[in-house]
Structures are given as C-alpha cells and as structure tokens.
Amino acid sequence: MTTRIRQLGTALVLALSLAGTAQAQQDEPKTPLGKKMAAMNTALKAVGRQIEDPSKNASTLEQIAIIETNAKASLTLEPEKKEKIPAGEQAKFVGGYQAEMKKLIATVDKLKAAVKAGNNADAVKIVDEMKAAQRDGHREYRLRKAGAPPA
Ligand code: HEM
Fold first, then answer.
1. Burial track 16-40 (b if 16+ CB lie within 10 A, e otherwise)
2. Which of these, 125, 128, 148, lies nearest to 136 by C-alpha position?
C-alpha cells in the first residue's frame, strides 16, 4: 500500500514537472518567424477540423489564406538556428530553408485549388502533405531547445 502511494506520488511529481516544461516553452518569447509559424499553426488546426466538410469550404478558404500569407512572410525571415551553423554553411542553410518553404507554399496553392473545386477528398490528403512538410522542415531548420519535444 505504502509502495503504491509512493509510486503515485512519483508519477504526479513527474507529470507536474513535464507540464511545467511545456508551459515554460509556450511562454518563451517567439521569434518573428515563430510568430508567423504560430499563426499558421492555429489556421492549420482549424483547417484540419473541417477539411472533410464541403459545407465549410468558404471558411476553410479563409484559414488557408492565413496560412498562405504567413508562409509567404516566413520566406523573408530566417531561422534562429542559422546562428548555430558555421559561417561558411549559413548561405546553404538559408537557401535550403527557403526551398522547403517554397514547397510548402506550392502545397498551400494546391490545397486552395482542391477546396475551390469542392474536391474535399483530395484536400484531406494535401493537408497530410502539409503536416509532413511541417515535420520535415522542423527536423532540419528548427532549433532544438533543451527539453523540447521532437519537431
Ligand atoms: C503549415 C506548416 C507549419 C506549421 C503549422 C508550423 C508551425 C510551427 C510552430 C507552431 C512553431 C513554433 C513557434 C513558436 O512558438 O515559437 C514553428 C517554428 C518553426 N518552424 Fe514551423 N511550421 C510549419 C512549417 C514549417 C516549415 C516548412 C519550415 C521550414 C522550411 C518550418 C520552420 C520552422 C522554424 C525554423 C521554426 C523556429 C522559429 C525560428 O527559428 O525563429 N516550419 N513552426
């Protein structure tokens, strides 16, 4: 019994400390690029919730426009990870980042066309492509902070 209570206590302490780490990361001031990303994230979540529903396409297109604006603005900014890269490799790093961001913008265009055409089945697949682009982009270009969850 005592062991059980001790185990529960340990689990609780662990859960609270993990929640604290997540909170601290959210509270960190965002970089200019981080702000654009956060806006894309909110819009992408809204898109994900309703992409299957053709009756919501007008509102979905509004959210896609938010993603597009912020993805285009992201193209003009540079990841903070650049500072951690040796000077001689920074141009290549930024070029790679821009190429990935352009691919994302092309995918957003494709999504817009599918939703406009009322092709929601295709649109669902394109949203998955965007999530994959997000994962890949973060793996390569986002600075890993201590204790941060992967991508
Ligand atoms: C729709 C797709 C994407 C979404 C929803 C998204 C979302 C996010 C979010 C929520 C953050 C954290 C912002 C913060 O709180 O500071 C972030 C950061 C970041 N993302 Fe994305 N992301 C996407 C695509 C990409 C792509 C394709 C790339 C690279 C080509 C990328 C590169 C980065 C970088 C570099 C950061 C760190 C910010 C900085 O270095 O200043 N993201 N993203």
1. eeeeeeeeeeeeeeeeebbebbebb
2. 128
Residue 145 backbone dihedrals phi, psi, to 5 degrees: -90, 150
Same domain, 50 and 76: yes
Question: What is the spatial distance between Cα 63 and Cα 118, in angstroms, rounded to a whole number?
Answer: 16
- The total number of structural domains that make up the chain: 2
pLDDT tens digits, 58-116: 999 999 999 999 999 999 999 999 999 999 999 999 999 999 999 999 999 999 999 99
Neighbour tally for 120: CB within 10 Å: 18
User: For residue 98, which atom of ligand 1 is closest to its CA?
Assistant: 30
CA distances, 58 to each of 46, 64, 88, 125 (Å): 13, 10, 47, 19
Q: Ligand 1 pocket check: which of 36, 51, 138 to mutate, most ligand atoms within 8 Å of Cβ? A: 138
Among 37, 42, 78, name the best residue to mutate to test ligand 1's pocket (greatest count of ligand atoms within 8 A of Cβ).
Answer: 37
Q: 144: which DSSP letter?
A: P
Q: Do 18 and 85 lie in a common domain? A: no
Ligand 1 atom index nearest CA of 32: 41
Q: Are residues 81 and 14 in the same domain?
A: no
